[in-house]
Fold this protein.
Amino acid sequence: MGIVLKNIQAIVPAGSKDEVKETSIYIEGDKIVGMGAEPAGFKTDKVIDGTDKLAIPGLVNCHTHSYMSFMRNVADDLSFMDWLFGTIDPIEQKMTDEDTYWGACLAIIEMMKSGTTCFNDMMMNIKQTTKAIKESGMRAVMCRGLVGSAEDDGGRIQQTYDEMEFCKDCDRITFKFGPHAPYTCTEDYFRRVSDEAKKAGIGIHVHLSESVAEIQGTQEKYGYSPIVMADKNGLFDVPCIAAHCVQVDDADMDIMARKGVSVVTNPASNMKLGNGFAPVPEMMAKGINVCLGTDGAASNNSLNMFHEMSLLALIHKGTHKSPQCVSAREVFRMATLNGAKALCLENQIGSLEVGKKADIAILDLNNPSLMPKNNLIAGLSYSANGSEVDTVIIDGKITMEGRKVLTLDEKLVYQKVNEIIKRMGLENKDYV
Amino acid sequence: MGIVLKNIQAIVPAGSKDEVKETSIYIEGDKIVGMGAEPAGFKTDKVIDGTDKLAIPGLVNCHTHSYMSFMRNVADDLSFMDWLFGTIDPIEQKMTDEDTYWGACLAIIEMMKSGTTCFNDMMMNIKQTTKAIKESGMRAVMCRGLVGSAEDDGGRIQQTYDEMEFCKDCDRITFKFGPHAPYTCTEDYFRRVSDEAKKAGIGIHVHLSESVAEIQGTQEKYGYSPIVMADKNGLFDVPCIAAHCVQVDDADMDIMARKGVSVVTNPASNMKLGNGFAPVPEMMAKGINVCLGTDGAASNNSLNMFHEMSLLALIHKGTHKSPQCVSAREVFRMATLNGAKALCLENQIGSLEVGKKADIAILDLNNPSLMPKNNLIAGLSYSANGSEVDTVIIDGKITMEGRKVLTLDEKLVYQKVNEIIKRMGLENKDYV
């Protein structure tokens, strides 16, 4: 199908930065086949009028746990231990396969409605989640959360291979291995997972240096930091995306810079659970590829990347008392191309360029948050809230139009997640 | 006109906290005349079905500069001096009366669409702004920014009296005196303004202790802090709302607590301009009435109180490394009833109660951000983005329905603010 975005403002790469430019974008099959002039032999099936519209590359959410979306606002303003063991764990005990599916559907609807077209997910039930991904038209990178030791991981590495096999019919889904964290994996398990990743030729997605408790525990057990533990056991010898990295020192950052580790920062989750602020400006200065993620809806509680972009652009200006610290332009890169790089998809997604996949969010500028039409890259971080996203194209297919998701039944999903919460006795529950 | 919100979830006060409760709300004239059972003799003209809806008291934005909205995203990621003198000041030199009007219209549209029904404005051209307020149906507290000395203030105090006279036909508009800041007013001017405020029986709206430069300048000039300067010169002897208070020490906070000063915190603006984080948890602990504001669109760049609530609920958890610090429930109070108190309007607005003005925002829960329907007070701060607001009632009149503002012409306002920016050579301007 040939789709044209006609005379539209678009954010496009211009060297190391991005710029807003009026153009036309031609889509054929799953790809952008032309920008500016119409390519020879292009067959137009659908024209989207670009008046008062802004096309941006679909946002890349580099760290989430999509199934948790049905747990949104279930456990707030609690200490980490009360949150995890008092509320989230008991819910997960009662969770069925189908609950995972509806949770993932809700996550996908929220992400699509706020311009995210690709997400990096750490999950327990991949088959149910990827069912939602396949149906919805989303793009995702999946990993099963791996916990245990080299001798006994409950068959989780083997499950990852089974799940890769299960998804081989959908090229929008790729995989990583997902060793959960230093406090849920042994050193020899990190080693075993990195060996498997090398063998399989895929990357790693891991939680590292999120809380002070994690640092202290790792230091006591091994005598070094989580970053050193990961490095010593091979996790950084394959493409690695490390979530959080809040509690990292200079030596940790030097290791990650040298090994080409990508760091996903999750500002809302890190603040909400009381973990603090990741040293993002310092990591940028060291040349680390920093990208952006929302974490799950049980600890954020939003999967809206516009919210996350705003936080990222603001908080470091506050902590560093500098209005120049982490610019809106840098934030936009982190939410798009840097994310694509972290997921090893930079040749396919992350920017609007001929030859790349057509993963595009189209914003309606007729919203007060983006008026007047000035400095739109700044507007994305500082004044937009995500509801300006009108149309979403993923892999060349229109998955949302006029804010209506075309590929999932929104009302049914809302009904189902409310039924889950009701079954668990949490419906309309007020504060603890 | 008798309006019923039938069988609706509503956030209502329950002692010192708020709770979500299903009820029906009866509106007659400008007031809530009943909740729960239909009041005797009530005549129903319109029924709003409460299914999947949430009624909240309209949000109270306690510090903004509405006319600046046409300067949204004009000057970002700049140092304070480059921002103010390099960009904002030159624009203000070129600004006409009509520009102020359209700027205020844009601000009101943005606020209404994100559930704000009352705002506290510091302005230069009150007549143009209040024209927009009168037309739109908004509620506002106005003050002219007063700068100068007791001998020469360019006639600004007199202008305030003239403007009060100009607005006496609209009881949705009340006034404060607005001494701008310690660095733009002399001590004797602070004294003169507080004497006038006492005489007129109205309160004060002032910027205090925003930046380190302000603290240093005041300390050098007078030998004490901006808070002490304000206190010594009578500003706290009338109801006073102090914006920012980022750089305050224990002694400053004790003075404000003792004198019953209300503090408006503006998290986005304070971070964006590199001023840091106000000690909100410490002020709360001292019993200071803390409320919430967006500041102007030239330094935020959003007037969306949901964005601000989210920041307020998150950042102090980050700085204090405590997930219990500043709860979502406390944030909701700061954005509603605490704001009403600060504006001396707590008997009229700030909560859904019989006898108060009908200032109500109705959210559509059929949005992924508020699904599942659980712990909705938390949801307002952590997952909603403001676009869930479907209908707004101010002073008993429906001013927005189905997200369409009924009282202003949105398209015309967008056209006009773009014309202003074009005239000033800033249209579609990219980053500096």
About this structure: DSSP finds 15 helices and 17 strands in chain B. Chain B touches chain A through 83 residues (CB under 8 Å).
